[in-house]
Amino acid sequence: MSLVTIDQLTHPDALLVEHDTREGVTARRNILIGLWAARRLGLSGPAAEAYAWRVHFSDRAEPGHDGVIVKVAADVSDH
Question: What are the distances in angstroms from CA 19 to CA 7, 14, 25?
Answer without folding.
Answer: 13, 6, 8
